[in-house]
Structure formats: C-alpha cells, structure tokens
Amino acid sequence: MTEPTIFELSSSGRKGFEFPKSDVPKAELPKNLLRENLPIPELSEMDVIRHFTKISQLNYGVDIGFYPLGSCTMKYNPKINEETCRLPGFLYLHPLQPIATVQGALGLMYELQEWLAEISGMSAVSLQPAAGAHGELTGGLIIHAYHQARNDKKRTKMLIPDSAHGTNPASSAMSGMHIVQIPSDHRGNVDLNVLKAEADDTLAGLMLTNPNTLGLFDEHLKEIIEIVHNAGGLVYGDGANLNALLGISRPGDFGTDILHFNLHKTFSTPHGGGGPGSGPVGVAKHLVDFLPNPIVTKIEEGTNDNPPLYGFLKPAKTIGRVKSFHGHFGVIVRAFTYIMMNGDEGLREISEHAVLNANYIQARIRDSYTVPYDRICMHEFVAEGRWQDAPEVHALDVAKRLMDYGFHPPTNYFPLIVHEALMIEPTETENKETLDAFSDALIKIAKEAHENPEILKSAPHSTPVGRLDEVRAARDMILTCTFPEVSE
Ligand SMILES: Cc1ncc(COP(=O)(O)O)c(C=O)c1O
C-alpha cells in the first residue's frame, strides 16, 4: 500500500472537531479510565475526508468499471434498489414484531415468491436460503427427505457434471449425498453415456447448471432429465446462471424439480467479498410439502376496503428451518424492486442482451484466443489464456495485464475442464463501447503475449500494489489499523 496510514498523516495539535461549550459542572473522571499517552491521530476534517476518499478509490467495483467476472454476473446494480431497501418501514423492521405490524413486508415477500415461481416455472418458493450454496444445501436436504418419505432409503448418489461450480459437490456432500462426477462431452454437454450408466436405483438426483459454467445450454436437456426421472432420481437445477434465461425459457417447464436463484446475481444486489446474498429455492408440485418452514402465505384476499392478509404456513413434511427468521430481507427488497422496475418484457431483454454481449466478445476475440467449446454461447463463455507459441504465458498473466488496461480480470482457472480458463461474463448492462474496449485490450494482450511476454508476466504495472502472493494475501490479511506502540 503506497498510501500513508492515518497515523503517519497525524500532526500534533491539528483537529477536526469542536465540542460544544460545557453546560454542566466539571467532574473528575475515574483515574483508571484515563491514559496519559493515547496516540489518537490528529487531523483536520478535510485530511480525514481526503484520506478515506483516496483509500476508497483504490478499490475496484462495478460502479467504477467493467467487471466481466464469469459465473458471478457482476451487473450494474440500480441505485433505486438501495433507496427502497432503506425505506424506514423496511429498514427498521424487527423479525419478532407482531404479524399485524409487518403486513407490508410479508406482502412484498409473498409477491416475490410468486414472481420467482412464475419466472422459473416452479410451483412454490422459499426465500430463506442465504446464498446460492445454501440453496443447494437446502435442495439436497429436500431431495433426501423426499426419498426417505417414500421409504427409498438407498438413494444417496448425487450426480454432478465436471463443469459444475465448486459449491455443487460441497453442498451436496454436506446434505449427506455421495458424489459422482459426470464428464462433459466434446460439445460441452453432459456425457449421456456416463449419465445412463450411473442412473441406477441408488440415484438420489442430478445437480445440473444450465446454462453450464462453460456458458452453454445443454443440447440434450430434455433427455438428461428423462434419464434421471426414469431412474427415480430428482433434478436439482443450479439457477445461478438464470441471467441467460429470463422470460425465454423456464427450468420448471423442462422438468427441473428444484431450483435455486441467486438474487444477488440475477436480480441485482451488490455482491462479492462474501455477501450479502440470497438463494431462494423453488420446487415443483410434488416437493412443495418439503420446503423449509415457515413460508409466507396469503391468508385472505383483499377487497376494495381491506388489504390482503398475510401470514406464515408450515409445509406438511418440511425439512425445517434453514435460516434464522426469514432470509436476507434487504436483498429480497432489492430483487423485488428490480423485477418490478423491469417488468416481464424488461426481464426478457435483460437475458437477450446478456447473451448478445457475451457472443459479441466471443466473436471479436475468437481469432486471438482458443475457445475450446466454440459454439453460440449464452451469457458467458470460456476462452483459453494460453498459446502454444508463447508457452511461458498463462491465464493469470492475461488476467493481471487486463488490470493495466483498466478492467477487472475475468474469472480464471475455472471451470476446471478448460486449460488456463478465462471465463468472461459481460452482463447486459455494458454498452458496445465498453465491450469493444475490452475486446481490443484482450486482442492487444494476445499480441503482447507473443511479442513481449515479460510485460504480461510482470503485470499489473498500474495498480497501487503489484502482483500479490494470492494465497498469503487471502490467509494473512491485515484488516485493522493498529495503534503504534506507546511507551508508558
Ligand atoms: C454456477 C454457480 N453455482 C453456484 C454458485 C454459488 O452461489 P453463492 O456464491 O451465492 O453461494 C455460484 C456463485 O457464483 C455459481 O456461479
């Protein structure tokens, strides 16, 4: 960090505050609370504002520039979402308030459940799970409970394609499943022969991301779902990539039994750095009774004179609570606002533009980078950050060099089935100028990889800190400013 710390900026006697004149008699403070030597930094108000504003500008975010982090859907988050979730009536709610005093919030949650069901083709939705991975865990528990309830107890096998997000096997294992990996075929689809061979009477389910993390819509989706259902298993849809499908295709219509939504991705809540998120889970008719408890419900329709009455219901065979209270309410309000602002046609346009933008970049860089599964992509695609005639250059070097051109790097080294993967997801919110500037930068970098590889290997050159030891940076974080040593 090149910025001085706030202690280094301190100058004796400078101050940025003025206490009002005391209007009470002076009193002695207890001696044990007083310290002779307390090194609080001394700065003017302006020094403080400039210091923290400068520090805030060292960070990169979607409000600063293009953020094509594949699989993360780092779209622009409209500021009106922040306004609505901070309305005092929402902000100051307490989950233990009497139901009669939170009818507006329950109404909003109920409507969002209904909208998500409509968007996805599922029958009912729980808003409880805290993030995508938590939705997957909830789904695994529902699948387990469903088979148990039918006394089909040997079904513990969960099939997971090798292109899946790492959370899929992790959360499935946490729900008690035994994981079997299914390879992808040469077109990036689930390998049907392996799937058929694994679809036996121990099959609990398949966890399928569609479009998958290669950004490809599986060309055999219907057949895959039939194979799993015919073997007595359930299909869990990882809906984290729903940004490609809104208003175009509904996982429920294909026979998906359970689906999670990443509200913080598709429905625009700022995310990254660990939260907050929200991963509601939708289920088909035959699984409604297993949903987490409680579910927001409409107890009475409204009339001209009276608003509707909302409350909670307990699903008959519920797996129980998966989250304290009712989920991450702030994210729920943001998603509600976003869906309401866009409407049905707007949602469809979101996905159309997300898909168009990804295909545009793919087409622009295709001659400079290998795209191993080279077909029309959905909202993202995966290229290789390597060249046979520039063997010393790796995807990481391309990612770091992109920072010098002012862009956040794409996801790299994921999915694992692509060597030196660069996973690019532009989202619908970027304009053509940005897509062109990014594509131009990638093309220039490909040229540099051949002509001047060292400039890639030593990148980034323009950031406050250079190339980090990423493992140490994550493990040994220094997040607090500590007081300098004081000699008593
Ligand atoms: C395809 C896919 N599945 C699951 C997840 C997990 O979601 P979360 O990070 O909200 O737990 C992600 C995260 O981006 C994802 O991209």
Could you describe the 3D structure shown?
- With 488 residues, this protein is an alpha/beta fold.
- The chain folds into 3 domains: 52 residues, no CATH class; 263 residues, Type I PLP-dependent aspartate aminotransferase-like (Major domain) (Aspartate Aminotransferase, domain 2); 129 residues, Aspartate Aminotransferase, domain 1.
- The strands form 3 sheets. A 7-stranded mixed β-sheet has the order 1-7-6-5-4-2-3, sandwiched between helices.
- A hairpin with an 8-residue loop joins strand 8 and strand 9.
- The mean pLDDT is 95.
- It binds pyridoxal-5'-phosphate.
The largest pleated sheet is described as: 7 strands, mixed
- Total number of strands: 12
CATH level 1 name of the largest domain:
Alpha Beta
What is the third-level CATH name, the topology of the largest domain? Aspartate Aminotransferase, domain 2
The CATH architecture of the largest domain? 3-Layer(aba) Sandwich
Give the N-to-C terminal Cα separation: 30 Å
CATH-level-4 superfamily name of the largest domain: Type I PLP-dependent aspartate aminotransferase-like (Major domain)
Radius of gyration: 26 Å
Task: State the secondary-structure class.
Answer: alpha/beta
What is the global morphology?
globular
